[in-house]
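Thread: "does anyone have the structure for this chain?"

Original post by V.I.:
We have the sequence but no experimental structure in hand. Need at least a predicted one for the grant figures.
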Amino acid sequence: MKKGLLLLPLILLYSILFAQDQLKAIDALMKKKYEADQPGCAIAIIQKNKLIFSKGYGVTDITSKTPISSKTIFNVGSITKQFTSMAVLQLEAAGKLSLDDKLGKYFPQFPAREANNITIRNLMTHSSGMVDHYAFVDTKSIRHGIDSDVLRAVENLDSLYFKPGESYRYSNTAYCLLSLIIAQTGGWSYVDFMRTNIFQPLGMNQSFIIDMNRGMPEVATGYEKTDKGFERLGPNESVFFTTQGDGGLYTSIDDYLKWLTALQNPGILKADWVGKARSPQHPIDLGRRLSYGFGWFVGDADAHRAVYHTGSNGGFRAIVFTIPEEQYAVIIFSNRTGIDLEDLVKEINKILSINNKSFTKLDSLISFSLPGPNFAPCKKTPLFLTSSERSWNASAMELN
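Reply from O.Q.:
Generated one for you, C-alpha cells below.
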C-alpha cells in the first residue's frame, strides 16, 4: 500500500512534466510558422474545459510592429456564420420566425422558384441552391459591398444550382440574406442586433460587426503573403470584405473564449439552440459522416463528434476546432495568408495526442451532390466564398 502511495506523486510529476513538454512543442511549432516581425496569429487551446495555452505570435501591423496578443482584434471571416445562425435560433425561440419560412415571406421580389421553395433552414445549411452573388454585383459603382447589395444582385436571378434541400453548396450569399432577415424580424439592424443580443450579454466588449459608416477600434491589419512580401488586403482593397452576415465579425481570442464558454455552459445561449447548431442538419458526405449544422461543420466519424469551421476574408484567416464532449478546442486567428491552419491544427492535435478522425479538410467540401461519397464541385460557375482578391470585378475569389 505504501509503495502505491509513493508512486502517486511520481505519476503526477511525470504527467506535469509531459504536459509542459507538449506546450513547449506547441510554442516551438508556432514560432517556426510565424516570425516575430511579420503578420502572425493569436492562439488559444482549451483542454477539459481549462485554458492550457494562449499566446500571440508576430505583429498586428508591419509598420507599427505592435505584438499580437490574446486581446488583438481580428476579422474572423466565416466564423461569423455561427453567430448569425445563433441569432436566427434566438428569433425562432422568440416566435419571430420559423426555420421553415419560405424566402418569399421576407423577399417577395424573388422569382417564384426561389421565393416558394427556399427556406431559412436551407439558407443556414448551404442547401438552398441559390446562385452566388459575386459575378452579379455592380462592383464598378461600389467600393464597399454590403448585404443589401447582395440581395439586389440575386433577387432577379431565376435559376438555382439544384432543387433546395437536395444537395449542398457552400453559400455566402445565403448568409448575407440571413442577416437581412434578422434585421427584418429582430427590430434592429443586423449590426445592432448582434451587439445587443449576443455580444453585450456575453461580455464580448471587443467584438463587433464591420460597418464602414461607423468607426472601428484599433484592429489587426490583414496581409496577403506574396512572392514580394506582404501586401495589405482588407476592407479598402476588397469590395466584398465588408458584407456582414457571412463574414463581418471582428473579435479577439479573449472575447471568443467567452462565446465558447457560453456554448459549453448554456445559459444566455440556451442548450436547445446550441444543440441544434452543433448537430448534423444537412449531410455533406455520407461516407465520411460529415454534415453541416447551423454555422458549423459537424463530423461524426469518431466516437466523439468534431465541430469546427474556418474563416477567410481578405488577408485574414481563422479556424475553430472543437470536440464538445471532451471540452477541447483549438482557436487560431491570423492576419496573414500563406499558412494552412487546418494542417496546423492537426499538428497541434498530434502533439496533444488528440486522435479524432472526424476532422476533414474543407478545401474539398465546397460543393457536393448527395448520391455517393465523391465530391462534385459545380464546373460551370466558379465557387466563391467569403472574400474577393484584389480584383474589383470579382473574377477571382478566396476560398473559405
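V.I.: this helps a lot. The first helix runs from residue 2 to 33.
O.Q.: and Residues 106 and 181 are 7 Å apart (CA to CA).
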